[in-house]
Every structure is written in structure tokens, then in C-alpha cells.
Fold these 2 entries.
Entry 1:
Amino acid sequence: MGYTIAEKILLAHSKREVIKRGEFIEVLIDVALGNDITAPLAIEKFKRAGFKKVFNRNKIVLVSDHFVPAKDMRSANQAKILSDFAREYGIKNYFDIGTMGIGHVLLPEKGLVLPGDLVIGADSHTCTYGALGAFSTGIGSTDLARAFMDGKFWLKVPNSMRFIYRGKLNRWISGKDIILFTIGKIGVDGALGRIIEFSGPLIRKLSMDDRFTMCNMAVEAGAVTGIMEPDKVTQKYISSIPQFISRIPKFYSSDKDAFYDKIYEWDLSRLEPQVACPYLPSNVKPVSSLKNIKIEQAIIGSCTNGRITDLRIAARILKDRKINSGVRLIIIPGTQDIYKQAIKEGLAETFIKAGSIFSTPTCGPCLGGHMGILAENETCIATTNRNFIGRMGSVKSYVYLASPAVVAASAIKGKITHPAELIDR
Amino acid sequence: MILIGKAHKLGDNINTDDIIAAKYLITTDEKELGKHCMENILPYFSKKIKKGDIIVAGKNFGCGSSREHAPLAIKGCGISAVIAQSFSPIFFRNAINVGLVFLELPYTEEIYEGDNLELDLNKGIIRNINRNKIYSFPPFPEFLHRIIKEGGLINYIKKARLKYV
């Protein structure tokens, strides 16, 4: 029996001739990522264990993205632990404000993750890089401490599921709608402990940004990771990365006789914008069924939807319009480069003229960190990835998840809105 | 090892924001994290816990973020073990790596709030004393068992390195 793309990458990073599903293996990693929440704990464990050296200072990436610019003294201290560690061990890939971005938007942009790589990150959304045809998964701080030391990672080889998407997407439908639809269908444990392989003719037509959005939320279905076979779109994307020089990408694809323990097939020609209602990302409804849901806040950004195409779609809707007077719209670019690009293209001006704020990159409000915490009884529609109880602030607040187009349209109307209500074609 | 404690029942999909809200992720101190365990869904949870008590939950326990602060908060508030129908993959590895006892059991609906449970980890038995029921659970695979036996991943790696270096 053949291998899936994910199995091929695992095999290539193990010192084995064959691997079997269900078997515990140790693999060598290409990138280990930590952030200002998880890396301090990893660094503490690394030091307490008495480890003296890092396995490879070029394969460790540290990004202060969650609570920066530091929201308080203790979070300032956590970011400082990262910068001190980076200096002490000569880790050049440490990113702080001015150069940083939300890790999962930043790493592909900087060419730090390439097709065929094996990436672990002490952040659950590390699965984002599956969009490039890399095997990437979220781990904990102890795993990270260990990887800092010997560059290895243990896992049980997971089963794969294959999702095949067909059809032609309607206007305003994005990768976010496809992944919300999918999680709505299979549930938050629908892919528990397994790998989702997103495939089919529809995926081939998606931009890299839409692909990142989809793989990013694979974890919301309980998956170990989501992955897509790299193609011409992937090739074009990595060729455009100026920093990409040192390593050679490897394009793997699944064998015809690879094993999947479940295969789903969907035609999305009739899909309308999707919205995940409180309090689970699987509580998904079509936007037209949500009548008169008033919002006080709207957020466009995060590792799910903080990329340049997301901002362009939002600007297209916000251009020459004003947001509703009862709404706070917070727009957060994923990285410093996206921030600059948004200024260059005039998107930033559009956002500010519409009455929103345009912030420096940060994970900020997505996890209820800072930059837009919700009060009691407030409702927010966001392009983020989780809507659990209290995720963005008060335990009596409500978060709806949607695409940038739906969030922008909702900010203008002051209630959850289909973008077609504002722009016909 | 034998663990004895009262059951605290929780539902399906208990996520890491439920277990420890992000606003408390400004410390790595187990005891401090423990004070806020489950605060978003059960404000007085940590006050109710007596040392050794056991969480009994539904499916997909620990879904959401990769924060290792979640198993630490559970340990920090005095919980000795988590029994659930299934665990999210990252929580699963974090629990192994930090040495939190956790067991998969399909029949958690038969256990009620306040039931006295006895876990015999060597024999692989969960005993519900109030309802006079016994469940067996399969031993951990050899690889995981070795990590657990050493008290977590770091100790395991250090020992393994001493052996081979």
C-alpha cells in the first residue's frame, strides 16, 4: 500500500525504511517555533533540565506575537525571556515588534517553511503550513524544550482522511467559508487525532492565502494537521519569496493506493457565506439564516485571516462607506510586510476613512489577550478561529466567526450581513 | 499507583480556554494557574477541589490551543487524574509530557458528580465505589509507558541520553 503526502514527509524525516500508521516514531524537524506564551515555559524547562546547547540555532524560530506590544508588565517579561534566549543562543530568527508578524502568517512569508518540511510549533495553529505541502503540527512547551535540545519530536503516525472539494464557488466565498462549512459538517472532533488531506479540483483553484486559512483551522476539527499537495500555485508563491534561498523545497504527493480511513466529497457550487455561532467553531450556519444579529465589534485579522488578500476583500467592501455608528471595527494585518503593503495599496486609508482602526500586527483580541476585549453582553463578528465561552473577553460575550467579506459587510450594517446586500457584483 | 478521589463531571469538548483562560497565561506557576482552572465555565471549580479529586468528562477533552498551561492548571488545582471519552491530540501529548494521569473510558456517562473513584494504574482498573462498578482500561503503549514511568518527557530524554552518550 502506498503513502499519503503526510506519511511520505514523516518517513523522510525518520531514520526508517518504512513507517506504519499507529506506530510511535521519532522524527527530525526542520523548524521549531515558539511564541511569547509557550516559549517561556519551554525555555524554563530547557534550562531546568540542564541542557546546554541548542541543536541548530537556524532551525529555531521565536516570535513574540500574542501579547505584543506588551500589554502589561508580566507579558513584557515573557517577551523578554524570548529575546534573552535568542541572544544567548545566537538564534537569528527572533521576531519582535517592527519586524514581527503573527507567527503563522510570518513564517511562510519569510521563506522559513517550505514544501516537504516537518515543522512543530508550540501553538495549535502551526497546522497552517500544511497549505504549502509541509507536515506541521501544534505541540506543547515540553515538546519544544526537547526539540530545542536535540531537534526531535515523537508522534504516533496518524490515520489520514481525504476531503475532496468540487464545483465553482459563488462570489464572496473564500477559504474561510469552505473550512467553516467543513467543520460544521464533521464537528469539532470530526477529524480527532487524524490528518486531513484537502484535495480536489476546487482546492487547485484557491489562492495560497485561502489555502492557509483552510489548513489553519484543521485543528478546530480535532485534526493533528491539515495538508494539501503542493502545485503550481505553491511553486509560484515560494518563488516570489525574496528571502528564500538556502533550502530546497520538496514537492510530495499522495500515492494512488494510499490509505484514508474516511473520504468525504462535497460540491460547493451552491455554498453561501458561512458563520460559526457561539460557542463552537462547528456551530455553523449560512449567513442568510442569521437575521438581526446585532454586533458591537468586528475584527479582521489573526493567523486565520490577516493576509493581504483578506485585507483587499475587506477594503473592497469598506471603500467609500462608513461603518455603523454602534460598531467598533478593528483591522489587524498579519505581518509588518502586509501592514506596509496595505498602506502602499491605499487599503489603510480606506479602513481609517470608514471609521475603523488599523493596528500593528498582533494575535491580540483573538484569544482575549488585548486590543479589543469584549464587555458583558457584547457581540463580535470576527475572522478569527475560536468562539469558545469567554474567548474574547467576558464570559457573557458572544463571538461569531466568518470571512473578511462577511465581517466587513456586518460592520457597515451593524448586524451580521451577507456582502451581496452591499455589492451586487 | 492507586489514586482515590471524588468525580467532578464535565461535558464534551472542554477546551483549553475553559481549562485556563488566556488572560492567565502570564505565568508558568502551576499553583497560580490552578486557582483559575475552569473559571470561564465554573467560577468556583478550583475552590471545590480536594486534593486527589478526578475530572470525568465527555469527548474531545482539551481541544483548542496548545497551551501546556492547561494540564499544569489541572494539576495545580489538585486534580490527580482526568478520565474522558477522548482527548484532543495536543492535550494528549502535553498530559504525557508533564506527567498528568489521564485515561480514556467510553463509559463516563455511568459516573456521576461526587462518585468516589479508585484508579489502580498498575492493574489498569477504575473502580466506582458508590455504584459498585469496575472498568478496565488497556495499558499505555510501551513507548508512552516509558515516558510516564520517568515522570515526563524531559526526564525520559535525559535518561535515554545518559544511556547512549
Entry 2:
Amino acid sequence: MAAGSTGSNAAPTPSWSDLPADLLIIVLERLEFPQALVFASVCTAWRYAAAAAGVPRSSVPCFMSWADPAHEGYTARGGLAINCSLYSLLDINKAYEISFPRRCFVACCGASHGWLVMVNELSNLVLYNPFTTAAIDLPPITDFSCVQAVYGDRGSLEHYIFAEAAVQETSYLGIWFYQKAVLSCSPSKGGDYVVMIIHRDSDWLSFVKAGQSKWTPVITSSRGSRDHYVDCAYHYGRFYSITLYGMVDDVG
Amino acid sequence: MAAPESGDGNNGAARMVTLISSDNTRFEVEAAAASLSQTLQLTILDGGGGGGDGIPLPNVDSATLSKVLEYCIKHAPAAANGGAPNATAVDRAELERFDNEFVNIDQSVLYSLIMAAHNLEIEGLQSLVAKKVADMIKGKSPMEIRRTLGFPDPTPEEQAEMNAHMLEYGWAYE
């Protein structure tokens, strides 16, 4: 099987699985994130090398950071795609750069069950799994009555009007419109998930179920007019919200 | 770190060293080229490898060594310039073309090369082959990678382990 070109003395069949770990890591450093996981699947030795190099696994929590698009080239319209780094919680010096293949996400407003809730360049939410690169589009931002789309002569989206007054660039509105997003379960393998979001200056709470095409607003009783939602969590089949004034609500 | 070889000993003629492969083939090469290897550089600075002595390399066969030396001879002038601040764009393009062509070889030769580069501590060659291997891996499934790199067929245990690992990320089987 070894190529005859290696000369007269029959070289032993080279075995890439026997490559020293430091060489494997040098190869690994040249792979982008999801490909590094494929690398780890190849054989046991490669899996150990990937673990030693700090390649995150979907079953282990990691810390994610990303560049603030407001500082990184927002001026280039539409060219403000963010990338992020995943840090191991066990060794903060091990970082893995992720560049999103779609290169169109402008912000991230949540992470649950191995999925990220990303904002795309049209300010719509997208569920994105960095481990598989699967993406699920959620209903558009124009679903909310406070956002109107303005189209140009040729039917292309020009910008949004927010609250019937403010003109917002299509990629900019989403950067501040969503405060937090939470998933009830993983959308992988047809999971029957619900996404709950806090949005519009922390004033609103809305949700969408798997497969639905519309956001449904949540009416809660406990908010005073000057109160805001600060957090939202899912636990045993129910979502709970908490406000700045400390009101906890079971939001179904 | 290394002193340039230019002012070394006998004027004009470059200093030569002899390297001996695992299958006892002797290679005579300029010390400057052999010194791309961190391991050899130390021996050469100590005055080794000259005359009839030769430096034995028990881990590198003649086919691999001649390939390694081809790389070293090509890269020696740029390395002697200390990363070549005065290299022209043409020189750099020529080296890049050489590098691309150089690693366009069978995976078994690539394996011998990266092992030799590792043993001899030739950093440039090591990263060149590593990059080539990464390029060969990109966009392939674990099974395709195994086939590309000539792995033996996985044992049932290995297969089960691979399946479990792939399942963790919800990847489809090939």
C-alpha cells in the first residue's frame, strides 16, 4: 500500500494516527472550528490531541466572546459580520476562533442547549448551531407592530421605520432591539422548542414555537409602567420572567 | 540567532557537511542549508559533519532526506537573510510556487516528510506539510479523512466510537 516512490527499503505503512500529539496540534491549528470537531472524530489519538488543544465539545460548557460590531467596521454597511471566540472554562488561555460561515450575523442575544440565537443583517433572529452549522430562521422583525419595512422602487428592502418615527438601517436595528433570547430545548432532531425573547428596550416579552411563522406577545400582569424585564428563564416546562422591580412572573 | 555563514573559514567556497541517511546514503550539502534544521545547526556550529565524518540520521531514509534537503537548499538563501527583509516580491512568489509544488505528493511521502521535519526541527517544512494536511482534511467527513490519509479500516470498536462522537454533534453518518 505504501507508495513505491519512497525508495528501495520498504517503508513501514505510515500511520497518521501515530503522529506525535504536537504535530497533530499544529495541523489542528490550521482548521476552523466545526472542522476541528470532524478532526476529533477521526480516531482516538486525534480525539486526545483535539482535547489537549482545547477544541470545545458540545457537551462541555464554554465561554463565548465576540467583537463589538459597533467598533469593528460597522461603517462598512452590511460588512459587519461578527466572529467569536470560544474559551474553555477549565483553561481560559485556550481560545477557539469561530467565523460564522454565513458571515452575516451582527449580534448574538442568547445561547441555550448548544445553540446560539443570532441577529442577521436584516435584524431578524436566527437559531444557529456552531457545532453543526445548522441554522433555523425565526419570524422576521417586521412581525412586531412597532417595526415597518420600507421598500425601494425595485422592491428591495431599504430600511426600517421604528415606532412610526425613527429610520433605522436594516442591519442596525437588530443590534439593540433584542435584549435576551432563551430556548426551552434544543431544536436539533426536530425538537419541539419555544424561543422566548425580551425586546424593545426590555419592555416586551414575545415567544415563537417551533414551526410557527409569527411572534406571539406575552401579556404579564406584574409590570408597572416604568418597570422593565431584566431576565427570563425556562424551567420544567415553564418560562419565568423577572423585572427590574423584582416581580417574578410565570409566563407559561 | 544563527550567525550568517558568509565570513566562515575558507573564503568563497561554502562550507559543506555530510549527512548519512538510515540506509547509509551520504549526502553532501552546504552547511547553511543543513542549518535550517535546529538539531543539525547545533552539531554544525560545534564543527561536526565536516570531512569524512558525516552526521548520521538514523530516523530518516534516503528518499525522505533527499526531499528534505531539496526544501532546505531552496529555502537557505531566504533564511540566511533573516526572514528576508530585502527579498523581492518575485523571490517570495517563487518560493511560494516551489512550496505548493513541493507538497503536491502522495500522503505517505507527506507523512515521512512531516516526521523528518519534526525530528530535525525544521519549522518551516513542518508548518508547510501541516498546512497541506489541513487542506487535505477540510470539507471531508471523518471516514473520508481516514481514506484520504490511508488509515486502515476502523475496528468495530473504533467505528462505534466514531459514530458516538459524530452523533454528539448531530452529524449524519457518511
